[in-house]
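User: New here, please read:
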Amino acid sequence: MNQLPLFCDVAMAQRIERVESQLMTAAAEAARRRRGDDGSFMMRVAGAVATFAEDGSPFNKIAGLGFDGVPDTATLDRIERAFGDRGVPVQAEVSELADPAVGALFTERGYRLASFENVLGLALDGEYERVTPPGIEVRVSRDDEFDAWLDVVVEGFAHPDDQGVPSHEEFPRQVLANAERDFAAAGVVHYIALYDGTVAGGGSLRTADGVAQLTGAATAPAYRRRGVQTALLSARLADAAATGCDIAVVTTQPGSKSQQNVQRRGFHLLYTRSVLVKQVPPSEAATRPDAPVADHAARTVRGPEAETPDGVRVVQYNGSRERLRPLFALAEDSSTQLDSYIQDGRVLVALRGTNAIGHLQLVATDRADTFEIKNMAVREDLQHTGVGRRLVRCAIDLVSRESSRRLLVATAAADIGNLRFYQRQGFRLQTIERDAFTPRTGYEPGTRIDGIEIRDRVWLDLQLDPAAPS
């Protein structure tokens, strides 16, 4: 294997971006076949592609631009309308080695820089040695192991190492499951890593045009720092070299643990992609006449998380609470209890296009400087994508500007996910209210979360720094 640093010229970047475009095209086509409808699309644009698979998919992007001319205005207009009509932002990933005119064009059209991602490469020269630490086995995953593979990858993604620039994207399990199935249909091969016979990690490989694309690598937190990723990486590199690939590439967040790990294995930074995002409103013909939430949205809530590059905006809601009942019911198991407070306080909603994808209810307490998050939920297929965090941050900003000093929230002691979520937002445990969830208070006996019976309520609070009104 050649250990010399790999130099990336424009021709090499064009080759890598072309392979990336081919993968997005194949994945979007697989999504179209899986869905069996016309919701997905693929459009050619100046030697690159714009693809949409489904709501929330990692395949919703423009990839490969800047190596075969600059897109014309009419083509970009059509692409932006197509994304806007589906209620999602346009995301373009542009290499720093692409024609600078492309970046200038996107800036002129109102795109915003949302993030960066690094593309690293390794020259493959002949055979590549497999590294197998003691107790670890890596092999191609069988069809009947897909769920186990997906579980460990999702778990790994849900607990990233706190190093480097955080990703601007998160994907819920079902979206990842669909994407990985579409990847498999597009020629991506899944690898599974076992530690003493237990599934500990997973990764993927696709080869095309002599380029080995390494994707989807993750290790369960309990098995990190044991060589699982080293074994996964070496197995895929060995297989890629055996098929005749002369270069392997991997995409990472800048400064991340993943980047550090692959650089230790000999990868070198080839170039950086800028992630440019633009929110496009749906065309008049695509707006559903019965979409009620946007009609009753008041002003956009102020705050750093209010409007985001992925097109989710948080607004105060003035319409009928009954229209939001399905969201409220996701966070409240007792219809009796829900009826008792659904009309209280104020409600923030997270909108994607005209559709409500999450909400947060703020109610006053017996103290003038204290508010409570009474009910909050995010649509199930979009959970773990950062929407809940945005709602909380907007609520914090809102009540802080009203000189509030404390924000309360309560959740079932059995709901470990909620406890983890709120503590990540800065809340701290305050008190435990025993036997809060009983038939006496409107809850069915034996109700469980992750096998734990719901009985006790945990109260958490967050001390606020009131902001001066502007």
Q: What stands out?
A: The two ends are 61 Å apart (CA to CA). Residues 10-35 form the longest helix (26 residues). DSSP finds eleven helices and 21 strands in the chain.
